[in-house]
Amino acid sequence: MSNLTKNNKTTIQITITIIVIAGGLFAYLNWYVAPDEVTERVKMIANTPDGCIAESSDGFSVNIGPCDAEPGEFIIGTYDAKIKERRALMNPTT
Predict the structure, then answer these.
(1) CB-based contacts of 79: which residues, under 8 Å, 6+ apart?
(2) In what order do the strands lie in the sheet with 61-63?
(3) Where do the TM regions start and end (predicted)?
């Protein structure tokens, strides 16, 4: 086998490896890291400088961002639904 053929095979293998790794990273980012936003009616718990804390329909407290609602009010809020999954991964005892 000539050196040119060996170099071409090596270059193709490296290129395929890079494409597979990049594709895997892209899939990981889209599946696990990208937010899954949900908009629903939530009950306000507190209004903090970091945003409004509300209780979702399944009882989780979520940050819905800045708002002007008072605690106890029901408003429509958008939050990241994957926060519950991430919270469970960080605290497996619950």
Answers:
(1) 37, 38, 42, 54, 56, 62, 63, 64
(2) 61-63, 51-55, 37-48, 74-80
(3) 12-34
The domain segmentation of the chain, as residue ranges, is: 1-34, 37-90
3-class DSSP state for residue 23? Answer: helix
Q: How many residues does the chain have?
A: 94
Residues 6+ apart with CB under 8 A from 71: 44, 45, 46, 47
pLDDT tens, residue by residue, 41-89: 999 999 888 889 999 888 888 888 898 889 999 999 998 888 777 777 7
pTM of model > 0.85: no
